[in-house]
Amino acid sequence: MNQHNQQFKKIDNQDIAFFRKVVGDAFVLTHSEALTNYAKDETPDETLRHLPEVVVKPKTVEEIQKIMRYCFEKSIPVTPRGAGSGLSGGAIPAQGGVILSLERMNRILEIDCENFIVVVEPGVITNEINRKLKEFGLFYAGYPMSLETCQIGGNIAENAGGGKAVKYGVTGHYVRGLEIVTSWGEVLCFGGKTQKDVTGYDILHLLVGSEGTLAIVTKIYLRVLPRPRERAVLLCPFSSIEAALRTPWLIMGELGVVPAAIELMSRQSLEFAYQYCDSTYPFQEAPCHLLVEIDGQSEEEVFSVYRLIGEKLLAEGAQEVFVADESSSAEEIWKIRRAIPEAIHQTLPLEINEDVSLPLAALQDFVRFIELLSKENNLLAPFYGHLGDGNLHVTLAPLKSAGWETLEPELRKKFYQEVKRLGGALTGEHGVGLKRKEYLPLFLGPAELRLLHKIKQVFDPKGILNPGKIFPEQVTPKE
Amino acid sequence: MNQHNQQFKKIDNQDIAFFRKVVGDAFVLTHSEALTNYAKDETPDETLRHLPEVVVKPKTVEEIQKIMRYCFEKSIPVTPRGAGSGLSGGAIPAQGGVILSLERMNRILEIDCENFIVVVEPGVITNEINRKLKEFGLFYAGYPMSLETCQIGGNIAENAGGGKAVKYGVTGHYVRGLEIVTSWGEVLCFGGKTQKDVTGYDILHLLVGSEGTLAIVTKIYLRVLPRPRERAVLLCPFSSIEAALRTPWLIMGELGVVPAAIELMSRQSLEFAYQYCDSTYPFQEAPCHLLVEIDGQSEEEVFSVYRLIGEKLLAEGAQEVFVADESSSAEEIWKIRRAIPEAIHQTLPLEINEDVSLPLAALQDFVRFIELLSKENNLLAPFYGHLGDGNLHVTLAPLKSAGWETLEPELRKKFYQEVKRLGGALTGEHGVGLKRKEYLPLFLGPAELRLLHKIKQVFDPKGILNPGKIFPEQVTPKE
Questions:
Q1: Residue B28: which domain range?
Q2: What is the DSSP letter of A217?
Q3: What average pLDDT does this structure show over A20-24?
Q4: CB of A458 less than 8 A from some CB of B
Q5: Deepest of A139, A240, A406, B144, by most Cβ within 10 A of its Cβ?
Q6: Alpha-carbon span B252 to A174, nearest angstrom
Q7: What is the C-alpha separation between B158 and A198, in angstroms, rounded?
Q8: CATH number, domain at A112?
Q9: Which sign does the torsion angle of CA A312, A314, A316, A317 carry?
């Protein structure tokens, strides 16, 4: 069986009428202008654009059930979608059909302080959760860098990482319960408000990161933590990238401290970001800057830890250590860090933009490879990201656009082959989606892929959920 | 299809000869005395005993492949087994066949400090990992209470929790890669030395906690952390259980501190444990004692946190706060805590011994229920466990044995109905196994169970892997 060759039913007026009846006329979009907004996500690659045939915006789980039952019956593809802020084409309706936009399911249903649980709908903007939690002295630690635009449902779909994963882990670590609608329209529930649960298989974690290909998530139980009362951000220009790449070991291994974040920003990344923010900064010639965040419950604790780290970094290649221990100044630094992807994209519209996750000890080799690759091919190669997790975002962009179309696939292949050779993963937090699916067989063998495909078939026997994602076109599983 | 009615092949001399050829004569056990050792685990219930037909002890993944291919071909059931220290009958060969004992696969293959990864075989005693890691200033934080006897493979099978899950999470949080052999004898690998990876579905977490019913785990990549340099254990007798049950909120919610452990021990539990350890203790009349562990990188940090917690607890019902800030005295307290299960079992051989996980706010109601149930039925009801996670171990034992056989199933049913009513889980860390499978339908609906069963079929189409576990007998999935 090959799910990608199957024939889906095209949407006709009768289908549209059904959707209108279920969710109301105002929430079924068919005008081409409206559809265009749902044809893309934040992936720069302009070839990753596909128009949906219709956009449907349900408000309740019952509406989603009706839609799924109908689409299952008729073999109509359904692509669930949050904010469309993804970076792998995951929310793009690759095979047309229905975009199931969860934007109206945007309620925080419950803040249950006593149980350290918050219950939310998938369309809630992730940052909204922390805004609400602040007054209770709690926070949701799994938020990614795009917190101000992304939705929690999308974070679940991608198992989003983020700046504080070094200490706090990624999205999946905080998911304690899910309500889902299956491809055939059944509502299932797993987990809830307990902190530990080994009742049957861990379906929660199977769903987290499944990129909308296994089920529609309609309700989420998230574990929340006490909000750290104090924080400090260190910004450290480094005299060499090699020295900066050693810092995770220095801080965690030698000092024995796990900071909230260890972020790396190469010279070029920072240059673009400061230009974009119309701002300047010291040590512009440093090959890279590090951002280290420390948090804790008391000023003394945070102070003693950042002093320890600061001294270590100064001894090991930091040219200066700037300390931001006020919330506003710390946010200023994070603002620059968060501006990098958009700044790069604005400056370098032609680009390869990757999300590699490597064993920490392989980072030196990897950066040397990037430097060589960019030199040999006349590329700009800004990189930045979550150094503490070995998760770097690398852009490769041509100095001149001629020949890029031929060069781009060659570069991408070389790039992934090197990542594989170094023991890395195809993607650390952005997902496979549409963008990386052809490279999946480099990282997962045929037997592993067959197993994944069989799991897909359990959840989605007709292949209608977000078709064309994750699995490469050529997968034809043995039966 | 009903997996439990299927006919498995009985093992004959030809099969034995094959196993001997694969692993060597010395590692195939058939004598009834030897088999008896593999007929049970640490579950007190004497009805949960089943003899294997043969015990096979492979040394390599290749041997396991050969065994699985053969057993798949011949439809011979295979039950993987670690130390047999489980508490749900998970390692008991419920339908005979082969016990695949992983005790000889007991090597720590690699301690990769730079990548904060340790690579181990499944038969390594869990505590051995931390003994080896100590000299590198690292530790594996996912270890359970039975660390001195259990094996890491068993921890993976059950997604074991433990005393420090409040701060550090359970086993699954540390699993970064697995090598497995499938029921049909194929070797698959997922993950590795990266800290973040969203390449395809999260098969790692699906395997963790699958109780040996999906695959044989042959190699494990664990994330390790900097070892906390300082620790302190507080032991606090409480004047009321109600007050003690509020402490997770007081410590984490009001003080904003996440300690490594918040353990509760009821008066009766402690009494049995001190008797068992032939030791005495102050405040014997206190309805319960709390054990709170704080760890950190500096003495000052740990001191300031434990002083804060100590003062809070004294103000909120603790009769005294004993501080153990030396490693040896801290271990003395943990030793008593760890002795409780065995002490209870020695004193009360007739017992129901459960592992409930509840939302923290439901604990008051739950304890009142236990008190009422034990009063109405003339029971002893010692309880103890991981209060900070809402994961308590409750024993119900009759004062006189007459009538227990009839009373026991009634009590168990009432017990689980109440756990369900309070939003709890069937099991927090011990697993479903053989012991709890009949109660699974109380906690997972028919649709959820069908989904689990289909996943089982993907991994184990012939139902030969640890048959008779997790799924209740009466499950007959719709196809």
A1: 3-103+455-459
A2: E
A3: 98
A4: yes
A5: B144
A6: 16
A7: 7
A8: 3.30.465.10
A9: positive
| Residues, chain A | 479
State the Cα–Cα distance between residues B94 and A183, nearest whole angstrom: 35
Considering chain A, what is the average pLDDT of its residues?
95
Identify whether residues A335 and A241 lie together within a single domain: yes
Burial per residue of A451-478, b for 16 or more beta-carbon CB atoms within 10 angstroms, e otherwise: bbbbbbbbbbebbbbbbbbbbbeebebe
pLDDT value at residue A26: 98
Contact by Cβ (8 Å): B176, B223: yes
Question: CB–CB of A447 and B188 under 8 A?
Answer: yes
Separation of alpha carbons B478 and B450, rounded Å: 7
Reported as type and span, the H/E element at residue B133 is helix B126-134
Q: Check whether residue A342 and residue A239 sit in a common domain.
A: yes
Tens digit of each residue's pLDDT (9 = 90 or more) over A233-279:
999 999 999 999 999 999 999 999 999 999 999 999 999 999 999 99
Name the CA dihedral angle for B225, B230, B235, B236, rounded to a multiple of 10 degrees: -100
Q: What tens digit of pLDDT does each residue of B86-103 get?
A: 999 999 999 999 999 999
Percentage of chain B exceeding pLDDT 90 = 92
Q: Quote the CA–CA distance of A309 and A408 in Å, as a whole number.
A: 40
Q: What three-state secondary structure class fits A227?
A: coil
B302 within a domain of the structure (yes/no): yes
If you measure CA to CA, which chain B residue comes closest to A180? B448
Mutation target to probe the B interface, by most B beta carbons within 10 A, among A110, A184, A201, A426 is A201
Pairing status of strand A78-81 against strand A98-101: parallel
Quickly list H helices, A246-298.
Answer: 247-248, 267-276
Taking only residues 176 to 215 of chain A, the set having a beta carbon closer than 8 angstroms to any beta carbon of chain B reads 182, 186-190, 192-203, 205-206, 208-210, 214
Q: Which chain B residues contact residue A199 at CB under 8 A?
A: 425-427, 432, 440, 443-444
Place of tokens 């709908």: A121
Residue A223's identity, in one-letter code, is: R
